[in-house]
Write a structure and sequence with these properties.
By secondary structure, the chain is α+β, with helices and mostly antiparallel strands. Helix content is about 25%, strand content about 10%. The chain is built from 5 helices and 4 strands. A 4-stranded mixed beta sheet has the order 1-2-4-3, with helices on one face. α3 links the parallel β1 and β2. α3 runs parallel beside α4. It is globular. The mean pLDDT is about 90.
Length: about 200
Amino acid sequence: DPLARETLRRNRPDWKLLTPTDVVDFADQLSPARIGLAVGELSVLAGGPPCQPFSTAAQWSTKGRSGMRDSRASTVHAFLVTCEKLLPAAIAIENVLGFVSGRDSALGTMTEGLNGINSRHGTRYALGTTVVDAADYGVPQRRRRAILTAQRDGLAITLPRPSHAQAPITAWDALHDLDPGELPAPRGRWTELLGSIPEGGN
């Protein structure tokens, strides 16, 4: 995304933005030396593949919830290729629940891919999956997501305990005292229906 890269350039001028910019192409061309690392030196490889192939929100679409058959899911394979080339100490992926559940999940692909890496390199990546709700950690939004982790040495990763499970922060808590200033005029095909959505509804 050129705009995302421009945002990074302006806000993190010391960060090195790698090319090619497509993660699938990058994974194919990657070598540890090219990015100044030795194999096994990277601490964490983190990824968030596009969620549309696994999202229940896309089921209305003709291409909705097609899982690993969706071309956008090629990023999952690119993640595994990158993992094998770098052999990081740990990996982490965040995605929708459909990424790890249902007949179109990526869980089988991830598990099979890591097992193959283990057999070829003597590593012990063992995929762990946890479902978390962002509201339980102080985010003013109920957002359930799957977190997948694995360590090269086979040890499990324990996520932090929820800090706000008993007292979640609401959107009102977070935004009630903000000065809205001049709001933009609503636009779009369904704008007139926004006011009819009940609080907490969809």
